[in-house]
Every structure is written in C-alpha cells, then in structure tokens.
Design a protein that fits this description.
Arc Repressor Mutant, subunit A; about 160 residues; 5 helices; two-stranded antiparallel sheet; mainly alpha
C-alpha cells in the first residue's frame, strides 16, 4: 500500500491592527464621565427646585448664551440641545405657556420664528446661573483634572514580557 502525503501551505494577509485595548485608560474615561454626571445631576436638581424642568432650563440658557451673530430660532435651539425640530417646537410651546419665552416673526423672512426670553425667564435663568457658577467653583477643578487625564493620548504601554 502506498502512503499519501499532503503538504498544506498557509499564508495570511497582514491586517492593520487596532490600538491595543490595554492602552485605553478606562479609569480616566470613567472618572470624566462621573464628574460630568455629578454636575449634570446638580443642574437637574437645581432646575427642579426652581420650578422648571432641566430641559427647559437648558433651552433658556441656550437661547440666552447664543453668540451675537446667531439667531435664536427653533432650528438653532434644536441644534444646541441636540434634539429634533418638532421636540424643540414643543419645548418652546411649554416655555411660552409658562411665560418664560415669547416668539416673534423675523423682519426679513416672516416665516422665521425668533425666540426671546421674557423678563420672567431672564430672572429665573439669572437665579439658576448664580447657583451653577457657585457649583462650578467646586466641581470645576475636578472636571478639568478629569478631562485632562481622559484627553491624554493614552497610558504608557507596559513593557513587553516574554
């Protein structure tokens, strides 16, 4: 009986490798996320204690804090809050019903709806902003430190062991 021999040749194509997961500083990312959540939790509680929902507070702040060259429109508000246009419309409706915001038509384009804070909305936002600035004096250094750590390129790789 004759013996059969098989020779198997195997070639693998080089594949671009992703950075090793061990170079990702998960602790730094988690700490940064934690500090953000702590501040956002403070903000949400402060808003509710003032009789306004957190997203409504964010909307007032977004409108008041727009750069001078930007128009406060529903579309701009939707972009600043990262929500859908129809959600921004409903949000402005609720703010207008509460007397914190009013709408007006654009001068050159009457289809354009401009958003304005009322004096009542301005006062509410000013009170909330004072408490937020006070909180940032405490939380700010922690946020900055955690951001610096998380934004660093990566941890130094460990020496290879054989």
């Amino acid at each position: 009986m004759a013996a059969a021999f098989y020779i198997v040749l195997r070639y693998t194509w080089p594949v671009a490798r992703k950075p090793a997961a061990r170079n990702i500083d998960y602790r730094a990312l988690a700490d940064f996320r934690y500090e953000i959540r702590r501040f956002l939790n403070f903000s949400e509680q402060a808003a509710r204690a003032s009789g306004i929902e957190p997203q409504q507070h964010q909307a007032l702040l977004a409108i008041k804090g727009l750069p001078r060259e930007s128009k406060a429109t529903v579309g701009t508000l939707a972009e600043r809050l990262q929500i859908r246009h129809h959600s921004a419309v409903e949000l402005t409706n609720r703010l207008a019903r509460k007397g914190w915001m009013r709408r007006s038509r654009g001068r050159t384009d009457r289809r354009e709806v401009l958003l304005h804070l009322t004096p009542r909305g301005e006062n509410l936002l000013a009170r909330l902003s004072l408490s937020h600035r006070s909180e940032l004096r405490t939380a700010g250094p922690r946020l900055i430190a955690s951001l610096r750590t998380a934004a660093a390129h990566h941890r130094r790789p460990r020496p290879a062991t054989r």
